[in-house]
Amino acid sequence: MKKVLLTGLFASLLAASVPANVSAADFKSDVTAVKQQYSVLKSQYQQSTSFKKSGFTAQDDEWYFTEEEPNDTPELANNLPMFEYMLGEFKTQEDMDFYEVTYREGFDEFILSGSANPEGNVDLMYGLFDLNGNLIEPDRAEFDEISSAFFYDIPAGKYHVLAIDGEGVARMNETDQYALIALYEDLTPPPAPTVRTVDDNDRKVTGVAEPGSEVVVKYGTKVVGTAYASRTGGYTVPIRSAQKAGSTLSVTAMDDWFNVSAATKVVVKDVTKPATPKVNKVDSNDKKVTGSGEVGATITVKVGSKVIGTGKVNSRGNYVVTIKPQKTNTVLYVAAADKAKNVSKSARVVVKKA
User: Fold this and answer.
1) Residue 304 needs a FRET pair 20 to 30 A away by CA distance; which of 50, 133, 279, 313 works?
2) Which positions, given as ranges, span the membrane (predicted)?
3) How far is CA 177 from CA 163, 294, 326, 350, in A?
4) What pLDDT, on a 0 to 100 scale, did the predictor assign at position 217?
5) Is residue 217 part of a domain?
């Protein structure tokens, strides 16, 4: 087979073909079966058009393989590469084209699609056979004005494709061509990614996802970062800014078929120490220590290592800690601890003489 660049939809694409030397009578039952199946499916699924992979609706500058004769028996079948267009033509009334395709494991649906050049007269029909010569019935089909697609739930392995002209007319014009393509589809979402701990200083989210999948990190509905998992599944998603402690991030993985995993939720951990609390003047008569600090933090007042009082910072950022009056020149240490038990640096205050 030759692979050529399509620079105009039908510009000089076909290599010279060898006239078929095998009679259609040798495969009469196969040809009849393909015609019957194709006609029934076309009648049943006419104008069902959600699938769009026609060789003659593709953009210019697509790469195409071209059929090489003789390929009129399964033994002479051309290889039909997955996800590659094959351009063919019928040179005689009895010409038929066989292709061999390999369907790999790990996918949910095999798709065979064909289309005839709308500027030509080919009545393209095709079918999928197992290696024992049995025509396989597709689960469903789709048709539009120039193209069709058959969808199969089949095991991995090798298969043959037989393409024929339904009218059985010799086609000698360059416009009398057809295109085939074989694809597979993955309908299974990736597993939910694993996510390592994220704290409020982090500028990245890391973990493991399906290899090659796109990992998306969101806060609510807002995307805060994306990246692709490596061949081994590891990923690092840079995020635009460190996220606030207590925020919930959702992390999903999307594969090449746009299947999206369930979201893994991760709550941003608070590892940031509160600011050192401010302390008002304390004298030897005072029975309280006052000041300001992080809202909700617990204030601890110590003399040396001994705790002499605790209190909470209110919603306005102020606190009052009850203590016994301390001697002049006693050194007090005042620290704030947040809900995550991060402890600030201590403020040092010396008790003044009343």
Assistant:
1) 313
2) none
3) 12, 76, 100, 95
4) 98
5) yes
